[in-house]
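Try it yourself: sequence plus zinc ion, in.
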Amino acid sequence: MQLDLAITGGTLVTAADMFAADLGIKDGRIALLGAPGTLGGAARSIDAQGMLVMPGGVDSHCHIEQLEPDGGVNEEGFESASRACLAGGTTSVITFSNQFKGHRIRDTLEEYKARARRGAMVDYSFHQIVTDPTEAVLAEDIPALIGEGIRSLKVFLTYDTSHVDDAQYLRVLAAARRGGALVTVHCENYEAIRWRSAALLADGRTAPKYHAWSRPRVVEREATHRAIALAELVDQPIQIFHVSCSEVAEEIARAQARGVKVWAETCPQYLTLTAADMDRPGFEGAKFMCSPSPRDPADRDALWQDLRRGTLDIISSDHAGSSYDGDRGKAAHGRDAPFTQVPNGVPGLAFRLPLVFSEGVSSGRIDPCRFVQLVSANPAKLFGLYPRKGTIAPGADADLVLWDPSRRVTLTQALAQHAIDYTPYEGRVVTGWPVMTLRAGQVVMERDVVTAEPGSGRFLARAPYPMIAPSGRLADGFDASAFPV
Ligand code: DUC
Ligand code: ZN
Ligand code: ZN
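Structure, out:
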């Protein structure tokens, strides 16, 4: 076979193994693997001596070009987000289509697809956010979008514009069970946060650091427990987004031990930042505000234990498109705005893999195979993209990152290549860096220069897959989800 491209001399890393091999690419896919020096002819060859060759990152939680109920749109568009992804070794994303309360889902999804078709330079799918599960949305929109290959829904248990109550959450779980989709959940208690925030403001405690005080660990733990308990009642598999601390992971571990189909992720911000970052001078702390809040150094360190034992199985970015100084940025209401008026979220598409590799592999906490599991293979599996994404095997898309494990790099805003005007990781030194990214067999980033074409990303329709099937364990054997009530 005449290969289009051969990658030779590198060490291949998958979720399972690490071995010296050459890799051949044909028509955008991995065609064959061979012992070093044994591949046949290739039109082009890349020397990967000294490099790890890993599957491109799959970021299963990031907010890109998201439309907001006030008529605005996230400052991070598909093109700039893709540039950041490719710079950092990520080749696929699952971002969001957002339902506004009082509106149907079906029109919004088309708008997101059109935006992605114009700008995306990575492959993409969507989670559908459900904020208003009316009868029509449950009976018509959700089955239709699942039929189009959107096999994950997201619900928020907090935020004024998006939270659902328990009755609504149960109905979304039931609709997902009927249609065959995963439900993903933002777990924080809405009323508890409102109550504490009002009290903090009444006491004049308005600075960014009080964001953490408004939502302590127990607020996240309670919502996580409730999200799991109701999912268990319906027998609907769920994933918990952005777990910030072990107190929450313990709830998940307990449910997993009972055999509940619940998975969970954390994000680099919870492994690297702490609440003290929000107490920086002036309004600088706003740059570190995200929800749930970063916690204490001990929480940050303990999360690695949850990642090692598998309670947490995915590390996503939760990249959020709010700048610092822009019109929709964190300082848009002034540099003395109360924390309740500051948009939540931190940018993280570009530095997800470098931060996790450095803190995880270079620091000796995890091995390279676990790294591949956390940032690529596991998100691909949980969200129905595997084995097309997330592995190096014949037939898989040739989405690869060539990684220099010993290169030391100081993170800067310029290296992030996103549209957001800052990075919370400015000045942090990492060990391990992506030197080349390939998507569908094409080199799309080399030495920090991204060369992909806007619109070259492909929509990833997700077919049914067994991992997210209900367990079949129902109280009294009664399947209440069969009745669309
Ligand atoms: N939290 C979210 O739930 N979404 C985006 C940003 C954030 O911090
Ligand atoms: Zn969230
Ligand atoms: Zn999010």
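One thing you can check immediately is this: Residues 57-371+463-468 form a domain with the TIM Barrel fold (CATH 3.20.20.140).
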